[in-house]
């Protein structure tokens, strides 16, 4: 039987490992071969070879386990305290930027517990307790977390209204993409950074507006609209209030039910014409707004992330090719409701019945 080395061993497993070593010593004395001992004790033949060498050099004491050098030197309470301090962030502990490095965590452990860890030991400690090297998400400094609380935000009010009326709750957002594609990770030779050729000049972009729609018991839906802006004189650069009105009407026709719309405070969303349209259709349309600087509450943001991931490193020759790629990605997402549900789950929101 094999037992993993390091801090994961319990006292019972260490005792069992010690018994196996001593049993191997007894078999050495009886003249058994390494292969036979390894098969009988269910350990690797290489381990048996090492034990036999230690037995020849120092006898039985040389085979006995010296203990695990990787056993953690911090108690469970100390680990919990370390995790709390890490979650407070590097700024709290005097570093200028918001980045935890192994060297900084090592220094923090020394400050808190007067225990010296190596950089490699710090990496193993963090890995063992569920920490990893990650790309951080961004959050606006101006964001008011008190206003973003689910109990107080428009999202919760929208969910309650949708549940009471049996309506669809719809999240709307906009995005755009130029000929310069998002960068995506790619394999390359060590020491040679892969190079992606993109258009260095040229104007224009693809503007997108999308709605993800949810209702308990129904398949999640994605409804979108996009427009290609080619940089021509007099051509609208984005969506106007009529485009948003038409998108809402199209969603109502496709969903065949009342809608509770939740969107941000974009200037176009607050125009008098949009307010008049909402007031004129209050029998099937209710509108709430997201708190300021809280895009992470909008599942439509996850859809844009999926789209830009599929067109990463795209070497589009022109806007038509870019528009085709964007439309293909959105169309594929429409037929994959589990992706839409995943974007909703990623916000941390829940859909009650």
List keywords for this structure.
single chain; 353 residues; alpha/beta; five-stranded mixed beta sheet; 14 helices; 5 strands; 44% helix; elongated
Low-confidence stretches: 1-7
Query: Mean pLDDT, nearest integer?
Result: 83
* Beta-strand content: 5-15%
User: Can you count the helices?
Assistant: 14
* Principal-axes shape call: elongated
Number of strands: 5
Order of helices and strands: HHHHHHHHHEEEHEHEHHH
Return Rg in Å: 30 Å
Taking the alpha carbons of the first and last residues, their distance comes to: 50 Å
Secondary structure category: alpha/beta
Q: Describe the biggest sheet?
A: 5 strands, mixed
Walk me through this protein's architecture.
The protein is of the alpha/beta class and 353 residues long. The chain has 14 helices and 5 strands. It has a 5-stranded mixed beta sheet, sandwiched between helices. Strand 2 (205-214) and strand 3 form a beta hairpin. The longest helix has 19 residues, at 11-29. The relative contact order is 0.10. Mean pLDDT is 83; it is low at 1-7.
List the helices and strands and how they pair.
Blueprint (H helix, E strand, L loop, with lengths): L10 H19 L4 H8 L3 H14 L1 H4 L12 H13 L13 H12 L5 H10 L16 H4 L5 H12 L2 E11 L26 E10 L6 E9 L11 H15 L3 E5 L8 H9 L4 E5 L10 H11 L8 H16 L2 H10 L7
Parallel strand pairs: 1-4, 4-5
Antiparallel strand pairs: 1-2, 2-3
Helix pairs in contact: 1-3, 2-3, 6-7, 12-13, 12-14
């Amino acid at each position: 039987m094999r037992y993993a080395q390091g801090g994961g061993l319990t006292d019972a497993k260490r005792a069992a490992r010690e018994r196996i070593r001593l049993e191997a010593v007894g078999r050495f004395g009886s003249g058994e071969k390494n292969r036979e001992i390894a098969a009988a004790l269910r350990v690797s033949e290489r381990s048996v070879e090492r034990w036999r060498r230690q037995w020849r050099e120092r006898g039985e004491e040389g085979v006995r386990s010296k203990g695990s050098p990787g056993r953690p030197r911090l108690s469970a309470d100390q680990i919990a305290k370390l995790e709390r301090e890490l979650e407070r962030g590097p700024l709290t502990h005097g570093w200028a930027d918001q980045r935890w490095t192994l060297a900084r965590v090592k220094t923090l452990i020394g400050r808190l517990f007067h225990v010296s860890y190596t950089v490699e030991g710090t990496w193993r400690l963090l890995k063992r307790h569920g920490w990893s090297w990650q790309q951080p998400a961004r959050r606006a400094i101006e964001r008011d977390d008190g206003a973003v609380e689910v109990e107080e935000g428009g999202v919760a009010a929208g969910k309650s209204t949708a549940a009471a009326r049996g309506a669809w709750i719809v999240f709307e957002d906009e995005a755009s993409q130029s000929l310069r594609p998002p960068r995506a990770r790619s394999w390359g030779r060590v020491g040679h950074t892969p190079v992606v050729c993109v258009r260095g000049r040229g104007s224009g972009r693809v503007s997108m507006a999308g709605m993800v729609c949810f209702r308990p018991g129904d398949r999640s839906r994605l409804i979108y609209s996009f427009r290609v802006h080619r940089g021509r004189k007099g051509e609208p650069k984005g969506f106007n209030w009529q485009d948003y009105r038409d998108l809402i009407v199209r969603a109502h026709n496709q969903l065949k039910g009342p809608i509770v719309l939740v969107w941000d405070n974009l200037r176009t969303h607050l125009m008098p014409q949009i307010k008049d349209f909402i007031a004129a259709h209050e029998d099937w349309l209710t509108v709430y707004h997201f708190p300021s600087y809280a895009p992470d509450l909008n599942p439509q943001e996850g859809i844009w992330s999926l789209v830009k991931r599929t067109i990463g490193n795209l070497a589009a020759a022109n806007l038509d090719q870019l528009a085709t790629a964007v439309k293909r990605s959105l169309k594929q997402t429409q037929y994959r409701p589990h992706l839409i549900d995943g974007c909703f789950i990623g916000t941390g929101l829940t859909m009650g019945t």
